[in-house]
Amino acid sequence: MAPHTIHMQAVNYAAMVSRLTPDDVAEMYAAHQTSRGHQMDSSSALTELTTLKLVTPKTVRRPRIVLVASDFSASVTNSVVWLREQGVDISSAADITKLAVGQQRVNRAGFIGQ
User: Fold this and answer.
1) Under DSSP, is residue 55 helix (H, G, I), strand (E, B) or coil?
2) Burial 73-100 (b: 16+ CB within 10 A, else e)
3) Domain spans of the chain?
């Protein structure tokens, strides 16, 4: 079961991210990729993020929050439903199951409050 404060942690991170620009995200992404052995400059990172990942000033300003756990307490579920009613783009996925389909593993999630 997810901790009862998981939704507040997610809201806090979304608030921090919402102050970034696509250029800020590109700098962090390039640094992360470079630290993993994939040399990348900020310009290449910005191109990748805006074309393949669809990062825009709007998507950075209003990030979507998705909570994922095998189960949520009633307080988390109630908070998620209320936040959605207030216009916050938040979803919570519970009842996560892994399915084997041929050689692939597929995750299936049931979403709460949609």
Assistant:
1) coil
2) beebbebbeebbeeeeebbbbbeeeeee
3) 64-114
